[in-house]
Design brief:
This protein is α/β, with parallel strands linked by helices. The protein contains 8 helices and 6 strands; from the N terminus they run H-E-H-H-E-E-H-H-E-H-E-H-E-H. Strands 3-2-1-4-5-6 form a 6-stranded mixed β-sheet, sandwiched between helices.
């Protein structure tokens, strides 16, 4: 039922070619109605800056085998938009081009709720038509729980998530008690697969630092096979 309903979201481009890729990474940006214009600018600028941070670039180019990257924004059930289709990142100039594109991008909508299950289903479709890399990861960043449509568990039950890791980044914009609830939601409902972990940004002003830490950590896991066990949300 969910698969049939979701068919309208299918993106029909041909799969990207495989090229000894070590990681296919999908980044998902939350543009639901809880994210205002200033916060959205901070997350786009934060992601762009994190991608070209020295430590992230070192992780990207630490081996001869490249990373394949795709980026989309999400909010309501049928409100997903590709910002970057699959791009094989083989040198710093290509990474700078991607960062520039993300930094200059504009949100497609601002009035829809948080349909995380649908976003995960959409991301699974992106991975399914993506390059045949050694590892596949989805990064879900958001400032709230699913409040529209099926839950993440519905996506995991209905879409092809075998061998896929889903990491999370909570953007905490609330008081401490609400933060704990959102962290708990991500830990119990969003994270998926081997080695999945959670990062915490203390507000959208902290988005760049948290994204930088998250990217470095997941690329380093792929590089070394060793998990970083530092507490979530602590400065690296």
């Amino acid at each position: 039922m969910i698969r049939a309903l979701f068919a309208v979201l299918a993106f029909c481009a041909a799969p990207a070619a495989a090229s000894d890729c070590r990681l296919a990474l999908v980044l998902a940006l939350d543009v639901s109605s809880s994210v205002d214009a200033d916060e959205d600018a901070l997350q786009r600028g934060g992601l762009a800056a994190a991608l070209i941070a020295p430590e992230v670039q070192r992780a990207f180019f630490s081996t001869p085998f490249p990373i394949a990257l795709a980026v989309f924004e999400w909010s309501g059930r049928y409100n997903q938009k590709m910002l970057l289709d699959w791009r094989l990142i083989e040198n710093p100039d290509q990474l700078l081009d991607v960062a520039t594109l993300i930094g200059r991008s504009e949100r497609s909508t601002e009035e829809f709720p948080t349909s995380m299950g649908y976003a995960l289903g959409y991301a699974a479709g992106i991975l399914d038509r993506g390059p045949d890399c050694l590892h596949r990861t989805i990064d879900m960043a958001g400032d709230g729980e699913n409040n529209d449509g099926f839950e993440p568990s519905g996506a995991y039950n209905e879409f092809p998530f075998a061998g896929v890791t889903v990491n999370g980044m909570v953007v905490n914009t609330a008081e401490f008690e609400a933060e704990v609830d959102l962290i708990d939601y991500y830990l119990n409902h969003v994270l998926h697969g081997a080695g999945a972990f959670l990062e915490v940004a203390q507000g959208f002003d902290d988005y760049e630092r948290a994204m930088r830490r998250k990217l470095e950590r997941e690329l380093s896991v792929i590089m070394t096979g060793a998990l970083n066990t530092a507490p979530i949300g602590q400065p690296g």
